[in-house]
Structures are given as C-alpha cells and as structure tokens.
Amino acid sequence: MDAFRLLGAGASFKKNGKFARDHELFNAQPARRDPAEAARAEKDIERELDFFHTAATQPSASVTADEGSLSKKRKRNHNDDHAANGSLTTITTAEEANAHRKANRIKVTGTDVPYPFASFSDLLSRFELRSFLKRNLDKYNFNKPTPIQMQAIPILLHKRDLLAIAPTGSGKTLAFVLPMVQDLKAHESAGFRALIISPTRELAQQIYNEVKKLTEGRGMKVCMLTKATAATQAQAPELRQKFDILISTPLRLVHALQQESIDLSNVRHLIMDEADKLFELGFLEQTDEILAACSSPALQKALFSATLPSSIEQLANTVMKDPVRVIIGSKEAAAETIDQKLVYAGNEQGKLIAIRNLVQTGGLKPPCLVFVQSIERAKALFHELVYDGLNVDVIHGERTKAQRDAVIDKFREGQIWILIATDVMARGIDFKGVNLVINYDFPQSVQSYVHRIGRTGRAGRRGEAVTYFTKDDAEYLKSIVNVMRQSGCEVEDWLLKLKKPSQEARKKLKKKPVDRRNISTQPKVFKEKRAHKKDIIENSKKKKAPQQEVVTASDHEGDEAD
Ligand SMILES: Nc1ncnc2c1ncn2[C@@H]1O[C@H](COP(=O)(O)OP(=O)(O)OP(=O)(O)O)[C@@H](O)[C@H]1O
Asked: What is the top-level taxon of the source organism (predicted)?
C-alpha cells in the first residue's frame, strides 16, 4: 500500500510525468517493489490494523488474570459476543475496569472515575449509543476504540470535566466528538450548545470535517466560524441562524464576541483541543474571555492534548470542576510508533548537505514533512529544494488561506511530496500517511518536538522522525533525548550522559529561536544567474500576456456565478 493512499484519494505515481526525476531520486516504484519491501509494507498495514484491535482482542497478562474472576458462563457470553461483533468483553466491575486500564496503559486520577468500555458494542449497551452514531462509526470504519476513547468517552458521557493527555494520532478527536453528539441528540433552535476551540484554522477545519461525519443523517447544524459565517451571525438575534455546534479558533471567536454577534450562554459542552497551547501566553487572554462568555451553570469542560506541562496543568485545573485526569502512556512521550533519530549536521550548510544526501541515497521516502523555525527559513529552504528539481511546496503564516488549503489538499492527495512547514502545521493536522518528519531546525520546546514528529506514526502506522542539530543546539539536546527514551527509542550512551538544560535556558529558547546562518549552499554568482534567468522568464511572460488574456462569454458567466 502506498503512503499516499493513506493520505487521501487520488495519489498518482506516474513515472513519466512531471516528476520523473523525483521518481529516480526517491526510488519510488511501488509497482515493482522488491519483495522484502512489499512484505515490510504489508506488515505496516497489519500493524496499523492491529493497533485498533490490540487492546480489545489480545489479552495481556493482567487481563488474563482478571478473567479468572469471571464466571464461565459470562466468559462464554463474552466470547460469543466477540465472535458476533468483533469485540471482546463488557466491563462491569472495578477489577475488570482496572485490569482493562492496565492493559491499555490508561492512568486515571479523580473521584468516582467511570469504567472504561472495551468495544463500541459495549458502549451501545451501556450508554444506549444512538443508532445514527453507531451507523456512522461503522460507515467510517471506526471499528475498535483506541485507549483514550475507551476511557474519555464514558467520563464525558457522565458529564464530568476532563483533562485528557494521549499520544499524537491516537484518536482524541473522536473521543470528544462522540459524547458531545450523543448528548446533543438532534437539532434544536436554542443556539450553540457545544463549542470546540482549536489553536489553528486548519485544525478547526479538520475537526469540523470529523463532526460532520459523525452527525451525518441527523440534521444537526455545525458551524465553522469564519469571517463570512461571523458576518451572518452578526444579524439581528431573531434572524441569526441557529446552529448546534460551533468550531472556532480563539481569535476569531473573541472577535465575534466583541461584536456581540455570538451568544455562548447556552453552551454546555466546551472542548479545548491542543489545550496546553490555549493556556499559553498569546492565547490565554482570549481563552479567558471565551470561558467567561460560556456562562451556563451546566457547562462541562474538557481539555485534550498530547502534551501538558505541569505549570499549564495547574492553570488549567483552576477552571475545572472536580475533573478526572486521564493519561495514556506517559505524559511528555511521543507516539511509540515513531522511530526517532538525532543527526549531528555540524553547521547550517551541513543540514542542507544532509537533506540532499537523504534524497540522493533514497532515504527520503515521501510524503515527507520538513519543519523549520521561521517563515524566512521556510521560504529559503523551499527555494533551495525547488532548485534541486524536487516536488516540494511550503506552508506558513504568510501564505493566504486559499493557498494554505490548496497546499494541504495537494499534500494529502500526493501531488506534493515534500512539504516545508513552520510550527503552524505542527499540531493536530492528520496526515495519516506521512513517512518521514524532518526537524530541519531543532524545535524550540519538548512540546513542539512531540507535536511536530506526531505528524507521522499516526493511527498505529509506523513513521520516522529525524532531527538535525548543530553545536548551537547542543545545550537543549537532552530534553529531546529524554522524550526518545520515554517513548522506547534506542539512544546512544553519550547522549544519555548529557546535562539537562536549565529551566532558564528552556524558557529562553521557547521565547526566541536560535540565531542561525541563512539557508543557502549556492555560490553568490549562481544566485545572480538564477535571478537574471527569472527576470528573462517574467519579461517574456509579460510580452505574451495580451494573447493569454482572451476570454470567452462563458468565462464571464463563470465569474459572476462565483
Ligand atoms: N477507533 C478508531 N479506529 C480507526 N481509526 C481511528 C479511530 N479513532 C481515530 N482514528 C483515526 O486516527 C487518526 C488520528 O486521529 P486524531 O486526529 O483524532 O488524533 P489525535 O490524537 O487528535 O492526534 P493529535 O494529537 O496529533 O491531534 C485519524 O485519521 C482518525 O480518523
């Protein structure tokens, strides 16, 4: 299976097309793959499927021990159930709940924590899961719950506040969307009853798509707050369109609140995705304003992320009421499906040489995401790689929304093989088939590292992450080494002996990235020639322009229709 098939439909590997050179460079010949590679790929898919099955179907030592306490009859029923619908068991006692948690690395803190569930059919019987939800779960192949779903869904269905920390790509979105939709039931004209906040527009859009999938066939109204939808909502209150679920970035929402075009007083489900980001300086004030506007006494709050530094957790706790805290695995760890590597690149030039080397030797298996620390550096690296003739594009905050959307779509469809990005793409975006993440510039924090590399190795699939470092980054290396160790990666002894950076140093780096030399290996004369060539092309285009501007009447009609 090609990685692009996982990224989305429509990927094509035409060998004689525009990117024939890339085919050679990347050695991308899926049709004539060597048998060992094919076997490895097949194993990958099996592993991916297994990921969603493991917890429910492979009794670990602790589950087996616990099964001893079940009566033979119940065991038989469970097995019959298992045979009938692919699930293993239902959980009805504290012992079973604890064993199930242990087997799935679910850690909980809080009072009267609801039992996890083991299969979607268990959920169906325990909480009378609505039939349209079960239908939609089946339709979109959500066959087995992931650990965070097993525990977070019952907690939210019991209307408890929740702080949930689970690895990247482990299905947190479904974990908060499903209980919300179950509770909202159907469309009502009371105005917004649920609100999901996410730090970036791209992630908000992705969550919107997931909510649409799960509410299919139910007529629930879902609104993604944009300039246009905010303008519609700014009409007189009686004319405002009544939506059930609102999804927004903090900035857009605060704007709408200040214009008094949005009323959040009926909201009873508030989800903060990438919650640690939302409690950081820069977002905190907006988050506060949103919390104040959600004035319903029945408000339930849920915070989700793959990372949650202790200081932020303390702050987040101040807004929660008797919350339950759930951690899957360990707190600051990366997904265990990612092979992480640290590569010493010497200096800035060394990084370019290293990435080119990776291309030449076939080590860069697309689709690949490359992270840099600034917009300037994203542009510069893009120019370098484009000049090498690679199929590459770039995404950052200076590109228009339309350009960003188009780039994301193209990357998903496999039309772009290498995507250079700033941290704006580091959180939440679900590119399931990314094979490799390169941290071209060393990340500014552990959280940034975990989220960046979390764009690969998602949904149980394996991925690879390579982080380049130079002497300038050496001081911060140990933080990343610790993440690698915690997530089960092999680390060389000398790295383990490094000193941990001081808190002060970590804070400094988070505020301001390391000063780096510009990205460029091309001699000056080369660049001048390139600029000259570009001028010639642009001038000749201008000369040809009048011929190209011939338009037909139907083109005009098209324009008007838009
Ligand atoms: N139970 C399930 N069965 C199969 N696929 C699932 C299941 N739950 C989620 N997925 C898929 O797994 C992928 C990752 O899910 P999601 O984007 O929610 O991860 P996440 O934990 O929010 O990651 P991040 O921390 O990076 O935001 C998605 O493509 C989603 O459709």
From this structure: Eukaryota
Cα of 419 from ligand 1 centre, angstroms: 21
Architecture of domain 2-32+334-511: 3-Layer(aba) Sandwich (3.40)
Q: pLDDT tens-digit profile of 111-145?
A: 999 999 999 999 999 999 999 999 999 999 999 99
145 CB less than 6 Å from ligand 1? yes
Q: Please say whether the beta carbons of 436 and 368 come within 8 A.
A: yes
- Tokens 């010497």 belong to residue: 346
The ranges assigned to domains in the chain are 2-32+334-511, 115-328, 525-562
Q: What is the ipTM of this complex?
A: 0.99
* Cα–Cα–Cα angle for 370, 372, 377, rounded to 5 degrees: 120
Which region, left, alpha or beta, applies to residue 457 given φ > 0 means left and ψ of -120 to 50 means alpha?
left
Distance 434 CA to ligand 1 centre (A): 14
**Is the CB of 173 within 6 Å of ligand 1?**
yes
- Which residue in 333, 371, 266 sits closest to 480, CA to CA? 333
Mutational test site, ligand 1, from 170, 278, 336, 434, max ligand atoms within 8 Å of CB: 170
Regarding the beta carbon of 447 and ligand 1, being less than 6 Å apart is answered no
Residue with tokens 């552990």: 446
Instruction: Tokens 């009371």: give the residue.
Output: 190
Q: What angle do CA 327, 436, 341 make, to 5 degrees?
A: 70
115-328 has which CATH code? 3.40.50.300
Task: Select from 145, 206, 215 the least CA-distant residue to 185.
Answer: 215
Q: CB of 4 within 8 A of CB of 413? A: yes
- By most ligand atoms within 8 Å of CB, the mutation choice from 87, 150, 174, 210 for ligand 1 is 174
pTM, rounded to two decimals: 0.80
| Distance from Cα 173 to the centre of ligand 1, integer Å | 6
Q: Three-class SS of residue 377?
A: helix
Which residues, other chains included, contact 543 with Cβ-Cβ below 8 Å and sequence gap of 6+?
A: none
2-32+334-511 and 115-328 in the same fold: yes
Report d(CA 358, CA 360) in Å as an integer: 6
Q: What is the Cα–Cα distance from 455 to 36, expressed in whole angstroms?
A: 26
- Assign 165 to helix, strand or coil: strand
